[in-house]
Structure formats: C-alpha cells, structure tokens
Write a structure and sequence with these properties.
By secondary structure, the chain is mainly alpha-helical. The chain has helices at residues 2-50, 56-70, 74-90, 98-120, 125-146, 160-163; strands at 152-157, 166-170, 189-194. It is globular and about 45 Å long.
Length: 195
C-alpha cells in the first residue's frame, strides 16, 4: 500500500511539474509572439515612413529606366521613361513649401523632358543614356529635397563619355552600370548612400 501511495504521489508531482512547464512555455511563447509583433509593427512603421516621399513613384520609374539601360534593353527603359512622365503629372505639389514648390517646378520640367526623350527612343540606347545622365542629376536633386522613400546609392563611373564621367542612383550596392550596359556592367563605384 505504501508503494501505491508513493507511486501516486510521484505521479502527481510529475503531472504538476509537466503542467507548470507547459504553462511557462505557453507564457514564453506569448512573450515571443508579442515581441515579434512589436518588431513587425516597428518595421511596418519605418516602411510607412519611408514610403511617404511624394516622389517615390518617380524613384521607382527611374530605377526601372536604370535597370533597362544596364541590361541594354532600350524598350524597357522607354516604357519606364513614359511611366516616369505619367508619374510626374500625379505628384501633388499642394503640400510643398514655397521653396520646395519653386525647386519642384524647375527640376520637374527638365526631368520630364529627359524622360520623354528616353520614352520616345527605344531603339537608340546611346541617346537614352545621354538623357539618363541629365535625368540622374535631376532625380538626385529631387531626392535631396523630398527624400526617396527608400535607401539609394549614388554610383559613379569615371569612364563614361570619354572619361567625362557620370553618376546614377541605384537601389542596390551591386554595381549595374546603365551607361556601359552589359559590356562593362560592374564598372563604377558607390560614392554616397542616401537614406
């Protein structure tokens, strides 16, 4: 009888210990889930803040032009050039300060003209690249004024245009040169990280 009672006591203690462990694991799991959801919320808030740029669509289309040129694909660059022009028309300048509005008016007119040339010349890569060089300067100026809505890298190539050099903006650290295309795709270096 003592062995049975002793066995029941041990079984009861084991059962209590197991339930206590499950409860602790459940609490830890809830804490882990809570921590992960807080991290996700923080990331989401950061992403939302980054996407708040009034020129984020321009940046997106510019990067499509850059990628088309880097792949020697004038058609893709032209399609993105046309989309860039459409995106300019959608920018709501009503919330800009007077100084921002003046700069926007000056730069957007020029960048629209450059994007139109890129959009109309799908079969002329070198012509597209000439206008892309000027568009890159315009977009860089706009990003400095309004932010990009994402991290960008200013890349530089000293060989382009008979060593007169040029720069472009990229969404990755990997160099994909839009001026040299596939022939020298990794030619260049990062000059600035723009946050």
């Amino acid at each position: 009888m003592k062995k049975i009672i002793l066995g029941l006591v041990i079984a009861s203690m084991t059962l209590v210990a197991c339930n206590s462990k499950k409860s602790t694991e459940s609490q830890n799991s809830s804490i882990d889930t809570l921590s992960l959801s807080q991290v996700d919320s923080a990331k989401s808030a950061t992403t939302t803040t980054q996407k708040a740029s009034p020129i984020s669509e321009l940046v997106s289309q510019y990067l499509q032009i850059k990628n088309g040129l880097a792949n020697d694909n004038g058609t893709d660059a032209a399609t993105a050039g046309k989309a860039f022009v459409e995106a300019i028309a959608k920018v709501n300048a009503a919330s800009f300060t007077p100084d921002q509005k003046k700069k926007w008016d000056d730069i957007s007119a020029d960048s629209k003209e450059m994007a139109e040339h890129i959009g109309k010349n799908a079969d002329k890569l070198e012509h597209q690249r000439e206008h892309f060089e000027m568009l890159s300067q315009d977009l860089y100026d706009l990003v400095k004024i309004f932010g990009a809505g994402q991290v960008l890298y200013q890349d530089f190539d000293s060989m382009y245009n008979n060593k007169k050099s040029a720069f472009w903006l990229s969404e990755t650290k990997e160099i994909k040169n839009p001026y040299m295309g596939k022939a020298m795709s990794d030619s260049g270096s990062i000059k600035e990280e723009i946050k």
